[in-house]
Design goal:
Structural class: mainly beta
Largest sheet: 7 strands, mixed
Number of helices: 0
Helix content: under 10%
Distance between the termini: 40 Å
Length: 125
């Protein structure tokens, strides 16, 4: 069955960097919107970024613009989230998710249909 698996989460100091990976199995990532979302304790899940894997077009939440970059390697069936200048408020469980690339609202979690299990990112000194 089709799966998404995130990895790369860690404990990092403020100002540090992490690179998360989302690997798809059972399907090709060549024609999807792949979003990154995060959920902090007691908070709603929020959209972080999205990449349309067929075109490479990206979308970012205002809170991460200029700090995070999402990219894809279709040959490896993998989407990445490079996170720089991390802040404590970036802490949370990070999920990747897939949906059809058409439409709008790419940063809304309710529009996504397939989800990974999440990877913990903790930004703390």
């Amino acid at each position: 069955q089709a799966q998404l698996v995130e990895s790369g989460g860690d404990l990092v100091q403020p100002g540090g960097s992490l690179r998360l990976s989302c690997v798809a199995s059972g399907f090709s990532l060549g024609y999807f919107a792949i979003g990154w979302f995060r959920q902090a304790p007691g908070k709603e899940r929020e959209g972080v970024s999205c990449i349309l894997t067929n075109t490479g077009r990206t979308y970012y939440a205002e809170s991460v613009k200029g700090r995070f970059t999402t990219s894809r390697d279709n040959a490896k069936n993998t989407v990445y989230l490079e996170m720089n200048s991390l802040k404590p408020e970036d802490t949370g469980v990070y999920y990747c998710a897939a949906r059809m690339p058409h439409g709008t609202d790419y940063l809304k979690p309710e529009t996504y249909t397939r989800w990974g299990q999440g990877t913990q990112v903790t930004v703390s000194s």
